[in-house]
Design a protein that fits this description.
Keywords: Disulfide bond, Membrane, Oxidoreductase, Quinone, Redox-active center, Transmembrane, Transmembrane helix
Membrane topology: Multi-pass membrane protein
CATH topology: de novo design (two linked rop proteins)
Radius of gyration: 22 Å
Number of helices: 7
Family: Belongs to the VKOR family.
Order of helices and strands: EEHHHHHHH
Strand content: under 5%
Structural class: mainly alpha
Strand order of the largest sheet: 1-2
Subcellular location: Membrane
Organism: Actinomycetospora rhizophila
CATH architecture: Up-down Bundle
């Protein structure tokens, strides 16, 4: 600890903690809301999938029409990539993200390793989500409404955590003063919407025409 001389007496100098980069509170909000939302939809999906396993005639709550059909997706191998229902992963990961968001909103200065863990977790989630998007659009040809809610949550959490880590210099290099980054996230969501419309043009036209 550094000291300074005051009236001939060495007095300890209290070092101020490093200031959090701007937008840290927004990251906490996104993690908390996204984590809670993802946990809820994961639970709903798991309950429906278990009901479908018990009764093949069961119609999941998010099976609305031939395109918005969770039941179609739940019957594929992609719905249990690791040998168990995918929502189990969400039930483990999303509450952790929500807890981290609550800590940030509570004013807790997370150590760098915690931000690295969030970065790794959201990156893995992002890769998994985009694999599911490709499978839904290209292979299965069906959409799961609850899954799409989880897609939105994971992408937002990845985006805000990455921006925060770049601003704080957690990813190496000097801190990057990123501002007005929301347009990038909006463009990302728009690209997914365009891909959905391009895959199901007649269905999308029907939605507009209703």
């Amino acid at each position: 600890m550094d000291t300074q001389v005051a009236d001939g007496v060495d007095a300890p100098v209290v070092e101020e903690p490093a200031a959090e980069p701007p937008g840290t509170r927004a990251v906490g909000v996104v993690l908390l809301v996204g984590g809670l939302t993802g946990a809820v939809v994961s639970l709903l999906l798991l309950l429906d999938e278990l009901a479908l396993l018990a009764d093949p005639t069961f119609v999941p709550s998010c099976s609305i029409d031939p395109v918005l059909s969770c039941g179609t997706i739940m019957k594929t191998w992609q719905a249990s990539l690791l040998g168990f229902p995918n929502p189990v992963i969400g039930l483990v990961a999303f509450p952790v993200a929500a807890a981290m968001g609550a800590l940030v909103l509570g004013g807790v200065a997370l150590p760098r390793w915690a931000w690295w863990s969030l970065q790794a977790g959201t990156t893995l989630g992002l890769l998994f989500v985009h694999w599911l998007i490709v499978q839904s659009l290209v292979v299965i040809h069906a959409l799961c409404p609850w899954c799409m809610v989880a897609w939105v949550a994971v992408i937002a959490m990845f985006w805000f955590v990455t921006v925060h880590d770049l601003r704080a210099g957690h990813l190496g290099g000097a801190p990057a003063p990123l501002r007005r980054h929301g347009w990038g996230l909006a463009a990302w969501y728009l690209a997914i919407v365009v891909a959905i419309v391009a895959t199901f043009p007649a269905w999308a036209a029907g939605l507009v025409g209703r």
